[in-house]
Amino acid sequence: MSWEALGQWGEDAVRLEKITAGVANDVWRVRVGGQLAIGRLGRRRDADLAWETGLLQHLDREGLTVPRPVPATDGRLFVDGLVVMTYLEGGPPETPGDWRRVAETVRELHRLTSGWPQRPGWRSCTDLLRAETGTRVDLGAMPPEGVARCRAAWARLAGRPTCVVHGDLNPGNIRLTADRVALIDWDESHVDMPDLDLVLPGNAAGLDDEAYDVAAQASAAWEAAVCWDDDFSKRRLAEVRAVRAPTFGH
User: Per the confidence metrics, is the pTM higher than 0.90?
Assistant: First the structure.
């Protein structure tokens, strides 16, 4: 996988400025067909990229503001791990009102994807009550006591309906303007419990005390498991308290 694939978007396609370079992806501002866009090169498999680009097309058709996949000249939405998407202007949420707008958009995402099929290779948090692994999650690498605490937190969500969750609603992945809320960077999106997306600053989603506690504990457990074992994941695991729950088999 290399940036040579960008040539599939036309002879004038060019990289302009690097945005991020991490373990999973190399992200650049690019120009394609004379328009500013975002190019993301990574190691995701074709089935995974087909799921993500199909999701974004669906959400765009339904009126959510998301990065739209820009087809290559032959119509493909990804080539050799490279996806090109529309560039979205805007700034991060800053006020309580901004975050309430984000919450409304996130609830619409959840409504539009009720019953959506799981991203290939991923597991939901309640799948992990019994499963050991899923994409970047490997519970076998965590301390058994920590796994028990995470599973106790996730067990409180068992049996609830699932939908697509964005999975990484930090301010840098939100672009606000006066008339719309855009959600970008869908690399962590998958099918799970909507509660994981609703732990927002100032309780912008308006959860009652019990619902917020359930969501906050499940979210902390998820972030501990998916990032294990860096300093962030250890801090998140420290927030997950022991809760009485059934013992689940491995």
Answer: yes
Name the one residue in this structure whose structure tokens are 């991060």.
92
Name all contacts of 63-69 with Cβ < 8 Å and 24+ positions apart: 64/105, 64/108, 64/109, 64/112, 64/183, 65/175, 65/180, 65/181, 65/182, 65/183, 66/182, 66/183, 66/184, 66/186, 67/38, 67/182, 67/184, 67/186
DSSP 152: H
User: What pLDDT score was predicted for residue 68?
Assistant: 97
Beta bridge partners of 138: 133
The confidence score (pLDDT) of residue 135 equals 83
Structural domains of the chain ordered from first start: 3-86 (3.30.200.20), 96-238 (3.90.1200.10)
pLDDT, position 24 = 73
Q: Provide the 8-state DSSP code for 143.
A: -
CB atoms within 10 A of CB 152: 22
Residue 185 is encoded by which pair of tokens?
A: 């960077």
Q: Which two tokens stand for residue 100?
A: 């309430």
Residue ranges in the chain modelled with pLDDT below 50: 245, 250
* The pair of three-digit structure tokens given for residue 87, joined into one six-digit string: 């560039």
Residue 14 has a pLDDT of 97
Strands (E), 117-202: 133-134, 137-138, 163-165, 174-176, 181-183, 190-192
